[in-house]
Amino acid sequence: MNQTTNDNRHNVNAPPLRVERITKQFRQGNVTIDALKGVSLSIERGQFVAVMGASGSGKSTLLHVMAGLTRPEEGRILVDGQDLAQMPDRELTLFRRRRIGLVFQAFNLIPTLTARDNILLPVLADGRSGMADGQLTELLDRLGLSDRARHRPDALSGGEQQRVAIARAILSSPSIILADEPTGSLDSVTGQGICQLLQQLCREQGRTIVMVTHEPAVAVWAERIVVLRDGQVLTEFPAEESRDVHRLAARYQDIVGAAPAGVPSVS
Ligand SMILES: Nc1ncnc2c1ncn2[C@@H]1O[C@H](COP(=O)(O)OP(=O)(O)OP(=O)(O)O)[C@@H](O)[C@H]1O
Ligand SMILES: [Mg+2]
């Protein structure tokens, strides 16, 4: 199936991203882990959504399912109306490359490639080398990576590797960006800069972003905050109730039962 066929089926009226009653289990020997237990979520075009939740609550698994990297046992993953769960592997790879930018929690950079080549890889793999150079220079500058572009990942700090992973997800101009703790290795000033960039991509370019984070100071940038617990959506905070980081932290602590990262403790 080629990309032209994919684009012809693009349904502009469908929500860009919707998951319906997703279940996902992992089996290790005779132990079964229910990582997602019937998660449903519908995300509008241009929306910036944060997903919070304790460690092990299923955040990364949900992001991987949304990206079509992990197939769920049950449920549908609709991207522009097309169900990723039903898509053959090769078609899914092409679809993901063009439509979805993914920032992995563990960065997943290729160790033998320079920062620049890591960032360019998805664009080159898609045969779109021509459009990338000017945008790449601008993005490297914006992310403070201009003088690190020729270094391989092992010569970069954790925060620099994280910014390379973010640049790689953004450069190919995907309509959906899925970012797993994209500020987890950054100092707070750099992290706030990344949040601002992601917010701009939504507001000015209509990108749809789902960002996993533990940090209220990061989540406050989103329009919606979805909280997972034990593989289920526990609750959701609308933006108007979540603009103040200390209020959000207190609320989050109340329902999750643990102090969140990145803010002074609230009592
Ligand atoms: N490949 C796997 N094999 C077995 N169990 C897994 C696998 N991936 C995730 N799990 C389990 O599924 C549950 C959800 O994991 P997930 O990585 O989605 O959590 P998370 O919310 O992203 O946590 P964290 O905040 O620590 O990144 C956990 O209990 C985890 O141990
Ligand atoms: Mg995770």
Task: Provide the spatial order of strands within the biggest beta sheet.
Answer: 6-7-8-3-9-10
Tally of individual domains: 1
Q: Poorly predicted ranges (pLDDT <50, ≥5 residues)?
A: 1-8
Average pLDDT: 89
**What about the largest sheet?**
6 strands, mixed
| CATH fold naming | Rossmann fold
Output the helix-strand order: HEEEHEEHEHHHEHEHEEH
Q: Give the helix/strand class.
A: alpha/beta
Straight-line distance between termini: 56 Å
Q: What is the name of the CATH superfamily?
A: P-loop containing nucleotide triphosphate hydrolases
Sum up the overall morphology in one term: globular
User: Helical segment tally?
Assistant: 9
Backbone CA Rg: 18 Å
Query: Could you say what the CATH architecture is?
Result: 3-Layer(aba) Sandwich
Structure commentary:
The chain has 267 residues and is α/β, with parallel strands linked by helices. Helix content is 36%, strand content 25%. The chain has helices at 3-8, 59-66, 89-99, 115-125, 132-142, 158-171, 188-205, 216-219, 245-256; strands at 17-28, 31-43, 48-53, 74-79, 82-83, 100-103, 176-180, 208-212, 224-229, 232-238. α4 (115-125) packs parallel to α6. The model is unreliable at 1-8 (pLDDT under 50). It binds adenosine-5'-triphosphate (ATP) and magnesium ion.
